[in-house]
Amino acid sequence: MTQVSERLASLSPSETLAMSQKSSELKAKGIDVINLSVGETDFFTPDHIKEAARKAIEDNFSFYSPVPGYIDLRQAIAGKLKRENGLDYPVDHIVVSAGAKQAVCNVLLSIINPGDEVIIPAPYWVSYVEMVKLAQGKNVVIHASIEQDFKITASQLEEAITPRTKALILCSPNNPTGSVYSACELKALADVLVRHPEIVVLSDEIYEHINYCGRHESLSQFSEIRDRVVIINGVSKAYAMTGWRIGFLAAPLWIAKACNKLQGQYTSSASSIAQKAAIAAFSGDQSCVKKMRDSFLYRRNLILDLCRSIPDIRTSTPQGTFYIFPDMSAYIGHKTIEGQTIHDAAALSMYILETGHVATVGGDAFGAPGHLRLSYAVSDEQLRQAVQRMKNALTALK
Ligand code: PMP
Ligand code: GLU
Question: Does the model's pTM come out above 0.70?
Answer without folding.
Answer: yes
